[in-house]
């Protein structure tokens, strides 16, 4: 089937969702999830006042882009930014017209459940400034942050932290290694007038988390440790842990397949008794129940227990095969 036919079908399935999004003051969402809806590696999203088309496996032809334009313009006549990311490094390959390039480079503002988020469709990084499949996580945190202290690890542009502050958190600590991401997070806090409760810590997650957990900061064998900000041991009411699939630094290795516990253990130690830790794993081949069982074992090894848990599945604009979402999110309440 043609992209035009598949995209039209995807939009037809989303009519109720699109109406609900408009009622909820949300103008950022996915309208075509290609892996499930017929074109592997093609994602089409609404980001505020623009459509963002991204291809990760094959470059779209001019005819295919015209087909997409024909369908999208019937939903909302907005500029379409196409980012061809079909090579292995995932960097944007294609040039835009001068007019569209200026638009893509400009800072925009989008809305999710009435919260303002900064948007820039082309910037020094690779990914959009808000991961749309994490909307359910932001909604959960906003609903469970009243009068709470919140730790947001691997915070990227601090969408979770901003949602926590909007939910009435008394303190939000956002930790990320990227100054660019934290600057966007600062903008998000300012847009929503919650900068007073938000902190932005530029740090490798390992030393930050180990210090907060009251553990010694170690490093990989024979690796000289670079400078890192000093933090006092602190426990939080709510801890959000959303690491990348794999990352390596002098302080340690993030590996969501083989060693999630290396991050989860200090994160749970930084969680108060009676508090909640929200753990995320975005690796599709990691089995959901096996991963959950490993989290429970890790909690029990620390002499604590899980008193309740809640799975948070992405919304319907991110369909999955057999309801088995690659992104797994579970909120664990700890004693």
Overview of the structural elements:
- The protein is an alpha/beta fold.
- 32% of the residues lie in helices and 26% in strands.
- It is built from eleven helices and 15 strands.
- The strands form four sheets. Strands 9-8-7-10-13-15-14 form a seven-stranded mixed sheet, sandwiched between helices. Strands 1-2-3-4 form a four-stranded mixed sheet. A two-stranded antiparallel sheet has the order 5-6.
- The longest helix is centred in the first third of the chain and has 14 residues, at 62-75.
How would you sum up this structure in a few lines?
This protein has 335 residues and is α/β, with parallel strands linked by helices. Helices cover 32% and strands 26% of the residues. The chain is built from 11 helices and 15 strands.
